[in-house]
Amino acid sequence: MASTSDPSLPPDTTPPRRGRPPAGARDAREAAILDAALQELIEYGYEGVTMLGVARRASASKQTLYAWFGDRDGLFAALIARNADASATQVSRALESAADPSEVLRQYARGLLTLLTGPASVALNRAAMTSAPLAARLLHEGRHRIGPLVERYLADLADAGVLDVDDPETAFELLYGLVVQDTQIRVLLGEDPPDAADVAARADRAVARFMQLTAANPGR
Question: Using a CB cutoff of 8 Å and minimum separation of 24, what contacts does 209-213 make?
């Protein structure tokens, strides 16, 4: 069989095969498209986002967006999933810390408030207010995914005799309510988000109160 490097053969002018990009390149392009979609959502709101606008901002084709995400709601679902992945990673890292439980919960609470009042979460929650499917997706990827992580941690604290709680889910709801209060809804309605110092102060007060209410030894 003749070698393709044989100088007697004409040069190979066959164009490279087209198809799916390599995994790394696909991931980078997908991230860029989702970044563009988020900026469009922040600037124009849910009703103002179009596949064409996202494609232009991301320097991508509409065909790529439809092929990868299906439709506009699929694009938003991917945004919600990415936000949830980042949140789950952050929460898991905080809860896996060997630090004192109060400090672990403070770090979790600070991260929660920062996330819920950040531009990505605010934009996605506003979008969910106008779309029942997106609201269901946000609830699934948020409360139903992140909540059990915290509930397991609180259950472990109860098993270790640190907390006196019969129901980890109820304990989580108490903690969440103390941390978030009305902060998220006020930001959704247009107030400026709390700065880092305010977030830390709110989170620390909430955890201190939670520990007072649930500590197995209130006098500790």
Answer: 209/178, 210/105, 210/174, 210/175, 210/178, 211/102, 211/105, 213/174
Are residues 57 and 39 in contact, defined by beta-carbon separation less than 8 angstroms? yes
* Predicted confidence (pLDDT) per residue in 10-66, tens digit: 444 434 444 556 667 888 999 999 999 999 999 999 999 999 999 999 999 999 999
Contact 145, 88 (CB under 8 A): yes
Domains of the chain: 25-70 (1.10.10.60), 72-214 (1.10.357.10)
Q: Name 138's Cβ contacts closer than 8 Å, sequence gap at least 6.
A: 80, 124, 125, 128
Q: Which two tokens stand for residue 129?
A: 């207010």
pTM confidence score: 0.80
